[in-house]
Structures are given as C-alpha cells and as structure tokens.
Amino acid sequence: MPVSTENMVRVFGRPESLNESAFSYCPGCHHGVVTRMIAQAIDELNIRERTVVIAPVGCSVSMYQWFRCDGTQAAHGRACAIATGIKRVNPDLIVFTYQGDGDLAAIGTAESIHAANRGENITVVFINNQIYGMTGGQMAPTTLLGQWATSCPEGRDGRLAGHPIRFAEMVAQLDAPVYVTRQSLFDQKRLIAAGRAIKKAFRYQVEEKGYSLVEVLTNCPTNWRMGTLEANKHLAEVVVNTFPLGDFVDRG
What's the rounded Cα separation, in Å, for the pair 90 and 203? Predict the structure, then answer.
C-alpha cells in the first residue's frame, strides 16, 4: 500500500554548505562525519558566503570540491601558511584548514606551530588517525608505540622513530591560542561533543577571538586492517590512552 508523504516532516538532510558531489573517503572512515560537521557548523552560523576552505594533501585533498564556498589547495603541509595569508589580506573572511597528521604534524609542523604561536584568527581542524591514510598506511607522527604500519611492520619503536606527537598539548603550551581541544567519534556522546567543539572553533573566529585547533581522533579501517566496529572500539579503548580527550585551552 502506498505511503502518503503529505504530512511528513524532514528532520535530517544534507547541509546546504555541501554540494551533491560524493566523498572519496573509504567506507567506514570518520573523515566524512567530520566534513559534514564542519558544513553543519557553517550553516548554523550563517557564514557560508564568506568561508574559505584550505584543502591539504591527504585523504581530503579534494575537499574544496565538496563545499559550496570558496576554497583552495595548499602545498603539502602549507595549509596554515595559506590560511594566514588569505585571512590577513581579507580579515572578514572565515578561513579554516582541514589537515591530517602527516600534513599538519610532519611536513607542516613549522607552519602549524607558528600560526598558532602568532594567534592567527583561523580555525584548524586536525584529523588524527595515527597513520598515513592516502599513501598506503605508513607510520605517521601520531602512530602509537607498537602500532603496525607499512613502514614499521614490527610496530613503532620509540628508540628508533620517537614517540607519538601530542600536537594539541604542544599548541596548548603557547600563549596565543584561544581554543585547543581534542575530540573523537567512537560513540554518540563523542559525536555530539565533537560537533559542538567544531562549531565553537568557528564561532570564536567569527567573534575575532583568535586561533582555534580542534584535533579529532578518527579511525582508518582500511589501513588499520580492521572492521569499522573494531576500529571504533580500538579508538575508545586504546588510542585515548595515548591521546586523552577534552579541552586543553578555552580562553573564549
């Protein structure tokens, strides 16, 4: 029997700030969730017409093709430098970078740290999945001790490769950042908290309060060689022991 849609109310849909293009992320990956959260925050703050996305080199290299706002591609690791230039030329724009652990915390360490130290009024969304996702699963600056990767098949050895970089804690030691937080997405409570953190980071930029960093612990089922449920459990029970969740700085 046909179902009438006359009195139905739509309660969930695609954010207006996203176009109809399909994401290129792997199935089960959290990148798509964070991308949607950003678009939703842009919609709720009504800032789409003046928002600029800086796409990195990595799994989200095509991000500027998915948003209904201006965007540009940065050279590997240089997203914060590009964001700084755009914001200084036109301070009325809302500029954000979206970067993985290799882009932000390896090749882009200098640009990332100094943008934070200067307190640039930009929003940085940092995706920490503890591995190089796009290039085949090599060890990243955030790879856990003992974690397998294609470039450390016996697991990360701290004596040879150092220890995982806790980027949020590094940035939190600086005087200038207004908001530094680490969130995750392994359950509903964390999803809600991450969405609120992303929106707050954008709101602080709108209010001209300064630099914000939202680090998000995410999964990578493909390169972790896990199913999605197992990967989420790994985040909740293992990864958070190295990367604790919560706000480190909130001067807003």
Answer: 18
Q: How many domains does the chain have?
A: 1
- pLDDT class of 182 with cuts at 50, 70, 90: very high
Distance CA 78, CA 11 (A): 39
Instruction: Tell me whether residue 15 is in a domain.
Output: no
Average pLDDT over residues 79-101: 97
Q: Is residue 22 part of a domain?
A: no
Distances (CA, A) of 126 to 16, 34, 153, 229: 23, 10, 26, 22
- What pLDDT does 13 receive? 85
pTM as predicted: 0.94
User: Which domain covers residue 87, as residue numbers?
Assistant: 31-247
2, part of any domain = no
CATH number where 72 lies: 3.40.50.970
